[in-house]
Amino acid sequence: MTTAQHTHADQLRPVDPDLFRTLLGRPTGAACVVTAVARGSRPACLGDLGAPLRSGFTATSLTAVSQNPPLVSFQPDPISSGALLLDRAEHVAVHLLGADQIEVAAIFATNGVDPFVAYPRWAAGPFGLPLLTGVLGRLLCRVVRRVPAGGQRVIAEPLALSAGEPLARYSAAVPG
Q1: What is the CATH classification number for the domain harbouring 40?
Q2: pTM recorded for the entire structure
């Protein structure tokens, strides 16, 4: 069962090992935004009972756990508004941000605001995941494990990845 009715499976492509290595071989400390969607139960007074809920948060702890099979790990702030929804999400999108995207990281790091209103440059993608535009790269992942570790560390398997325009400039600047 997926977290949304539309999977857009035709948009999923196999994970290219070289691109995976390039995307996750960036200098440490770079931020990423994780977006998720899960079946919700909004209070009846808000309407849309059972409609999917979306969430997003900034994570600075993205780690490549394994290349074969490709696995990534990240940890949300346990008090972030996105952490609770992430407990129910089956899929996530990990958006790798460029150095010039500090504003995007700040928007998704702010509690108490809807980041999808504050940052309107996104569209629904496979599994109903909110996909941000203009990012360095993106991994569409299936959550495979949640590990309690000072909050909760999520282990996810990338099902597909894509690189944005900035990655070509970044890759050219990094010695092979």
Answers
A1: 2.30.110.10
A2: 0.75
